[in-house]
Amino acid sequence: MLRIGFVPGVSPDKWFHRWADRHPEQPLESFLLSVEEQRTALLEDDADFCFVRLPIDKTGLHLIPLYSETAVVVAPKDHEITVFEELELKDLADENLLSTSGGTEAALDLVQAGVGLLILPQSLARHHNRKELRYRPVLDAPGSSVGLAWLTEREDPEIEEFIGVVRGRTANSSRQEPTPAKAQKSAKAKPSPAKNVPKNAAKKPAAAQRHKRSGRPGKRR
């Protein structure tokens, strides 16, 4: 059974459903983990795959980038920025921007207390949605990316099959592309077209061929 971790804000449901449709006899074990745990879970063999939030130390890992998302600023519901539909970083120049170094929930507690504002990936803001808070897109803030990570040493068929599911490979598609050597061999086996032969060249009538062999000219009309 494949064990798959995912960080808050990431929704891997579409890949899980695709796997279940294709392999109903092989259920997945999935669990939520923090961004701080995403790399450790792989290195300590607590997970076979992790849907991770980038950046991540890729030493010893394979990584497939999946998608990027917009950054948003989170503020108390009565804050003046909530009158805007979207913002730029210059609009937040006078604000106290907090970090998530002590954890996302702790940072949101400070936002709710009026200590400052917090910039988060949009999906993470939705995941930690609170009725006392609001968020707005920040158009020029660095976006956040999500990817699928696993250990480089893992190459067994079940691992390869899940990678194919995430990449969108169909059940009937081949897992392996032909090697360069096979491709060259196949190319050599194909007959090359005749050179310097006009495309519209037609065969001479059989009667003309007989006249040519006998040395007698054909009849004039």
Q: How would you describe this structure in keywords?
A:
221 residues, alpha/beta, D-Maltodextrin-Binding Protein, domain 2, five-stranded mixed sheet, four-stranded mixed sheet, disordered C terminus
Description:
The chain has 221 residues and is of the alpha/beta class. It folds into 2 domains: 90 residues, D-Maltodextrin-Binding Protein, domain 2 (3-Layer(aba) Sandwich), CATH 3.40.190.10; 67 residues, D-Maltodextrin-Binding Protein, domain 2 (3-Layer(aba) Sandwich). The chain contains 7 helices and 9 strands. The C terminus is likely disordered.
Topology:
Elements: E1 3-6, H1 13-22, E2 29-32, H2 38-43, E3 49-53, E4 61-69, E5 71-76, E6 97-98, H3 104-112, E7 117-121, H4 122-127, E8 133-137, E9 144-151, H5 157-167, H6 180-189, H7 206-214
Parallel strand pairs: 1-2, 1-3, 6-7
Antiparallel strand pairs: 3-9, 4-9, 5-7, 5-8
Please name the CATH architecture of the largest domain: 3-Layer(aba) Sandwich
The number of helices is 7
Rounded to an integer in angstroms, the radius of gyration calculated over CA atoms is 32 Å
Main sheet characteristics? 5 strands, mixed
Form type = elongated
What is the helix content? 25-40%
